[in-house]
């Protein structure tokens, strides 16, 4: 695990205190080669897992703010998302608005059947059938929003974040393209988020609907200091759509990319599902408690660990000077949580680069302990923990359980040889496997009939 605090331009008042250690310097020259080429910010690398937990969870009142990101917040490209706002009235109002629907296990029980419909609709053509192209009227806009978000929030990608005064440069000035880009992306984002909200409202009026966030968010949000467009129902639905893109689509492609390379994992999961649940129905959320220490649950945990879809969690910022162990953390230090490194620490996970669900099964050692559950890390820390983590956790379980229960997933064969090698994982704020080919078929005629019956139910 690692995270990186760096000192703001204002410096740190306790100059005789010891900062976390940085890179090794050169003889005589010291760390002159590590000096930033622009912006005047000092980076410090730290690698202490327990201390990160101490800082971001137990001291969340200090470390739950968000650093100032001029391009996204001041210029508008990310002003719609509370994930990029500090501990403001808008941030608190957002958490308060979304908690009744998604903030607890009890709250999401009202959506249990609809969570299953999401998975079944995606796998077997459900209530909303997407166009068989990349330009579907609902799916394509949400993909565009996530692409804009990933580009605009990338740390260090925009010079204006290092030199905030650049935001005052007029758009007609040569090389002042960033303001034009920001304005275009901001307008695109709002328009794209309004599309699915308008569709959902139309469904409520014209079609018999089941519980959804759009219905529950129709109640006005209590007035709050800092209330903005991002806290309107369509803004809140935009947050939900963005999170669903990460938690469902990106994780599902990660599941598939691993399963084509590990047929033994599928075989073990198939055997357990047949033994515990049978083939007369698909697994549901009620079955999760019966599988609490099962191989299927271990499969879910391992894919979360092996491929974090957000390998570098959104940054946190400290609101005052603090001390952690022997080191001082200056006020306004920025914490970048390297989730991928934490999930692949050899000291924590044995043979971390290997996909091995068995690591999460109770061992035969004296205490029976398995390796740490990734759920405590992958959804974030402190007051910035993912507000929809309970819905995401249930969705991930159903994605894995229902897909494995009904289908065989194999590598595609071209000219007698496997078409895909293990896919490469893309870098960036949001990661997903590179394109790969696979085949997916019902396991047996019994499962094919079951899929057809479910399809009729959700059409």
From TrEMBL:
It holds the Pfam family p450. InterPro entries: Cyt_P450 (IPR001128), Cyt_P450_CS (IPR017972), Cyt_P450_E_grp-I (IPR002401), Cyt_P450_sf (IPR036396), Cytochrome_P450_fung (IPR050364). Coiled coil: none annotated. Transmembrane segments: none annotated. It comes from the Eukaryota. Heme binds at residue 386. GO terms for molecular function: heme binding; iron ion binding; monooxygenase activity; oxidoreductase activity, acting on paired donors, with incorporation or reduction of molecular oxygen. Belongs to the cytochrome P450 family. This is Cytochrome P450. The lineage of its organism: Eukaryota, Fungi, Dikarya, Ascomycota, Pezizomycotina.
């Amino acid at each position: 695990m690692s995270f990186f605090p760096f000192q703001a331009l204002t410096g740190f008042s306790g100059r005789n205190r010891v900062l976390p250690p940085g890179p090794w310097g050169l003889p005589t020259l010291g760390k002159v080669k590590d000096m930033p080429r622009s912006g005047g910010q000092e980076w410090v690398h730290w690698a202490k897992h327990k201390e990160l937990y101490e800082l971001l969870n137990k001291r969340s009142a200090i470390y739950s703010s968000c650093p100032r990101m001029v391009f996204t917040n001041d210029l508008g490209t990310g002003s719609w998302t509370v994930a990029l706002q500090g501990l403001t009235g808008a941030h608190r109002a957002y958490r308060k608005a979304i908690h009744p629907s998604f903030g607890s296990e009890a709250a999401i029980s009202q959506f249990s059947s609809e969570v299953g419909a999401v998975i079944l609709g995606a796998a077997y053509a459900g209530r909303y059938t997407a166009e068989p192209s990349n330009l579907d009227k609902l799916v394509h806009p949400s993909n565009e929003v996530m692409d804009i978000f990933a580009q605009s929030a990338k740390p260090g990608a925009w010079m204006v974040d290092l030199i905030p005064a650049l935001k005052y440069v007029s758009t007609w000035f040569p090389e002042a393209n960033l303001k034009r880009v920001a304005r275009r992306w901001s307008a695109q984002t709002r328009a794209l988020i309004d599309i699915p909200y308008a569709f959902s409202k139309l469904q409520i009026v014209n079609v018999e609907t089941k519980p959804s966030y759009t219905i529950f968010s129709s109640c006005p949000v209590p007035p709050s200091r800092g209330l903005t467009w991002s806290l309107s129902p369509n803004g809140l639905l935009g947050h939900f759509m963005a999170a669903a893109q990460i938690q469902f689509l990106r994780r599902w492609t990660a599941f598939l990319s691993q399963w084509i390379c590990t047929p033994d994992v599928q075989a073990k999961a198939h055997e357990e599902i047949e033994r515990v649940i049978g083939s007369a129905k698909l697994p549901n959320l009620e079955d999760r408690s019966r599988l609490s220490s099962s191989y299927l649950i271990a499969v879910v945990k391992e894919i979360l660990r092996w491929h974090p879809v957000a390998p570098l969690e959104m940054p946190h910022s400290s609101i005052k000077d603090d001390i952690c162990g022997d080191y001082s953390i200056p006020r306004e230090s920025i914490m970048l949580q390297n989730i991928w490194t934490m999930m692949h620490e050899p000291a924590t996970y044995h043979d971390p680069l290997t996909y091995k669900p068995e690591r999460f099964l109770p061992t035969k050692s004296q205490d029976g302990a398995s390796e740490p559950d990734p759920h405590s890390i992958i959804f974030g820390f402190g007051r910035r923990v993912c507000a929809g983590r309970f819905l995401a956790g249930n969705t991930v379980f159903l994605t894995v359980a229902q897909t494995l229960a009904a289908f065989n997933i194999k590598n595609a064969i071209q000219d007698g040889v496997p078409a895909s090698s293990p896919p490469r994982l893309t870098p960036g704020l949001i990661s997903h496997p590179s394109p790969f080919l696979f085949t997916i078929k019902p396991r047996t005629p019994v499962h094919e009939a079951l899929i057809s019956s479910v399809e009729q139910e959700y059409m």
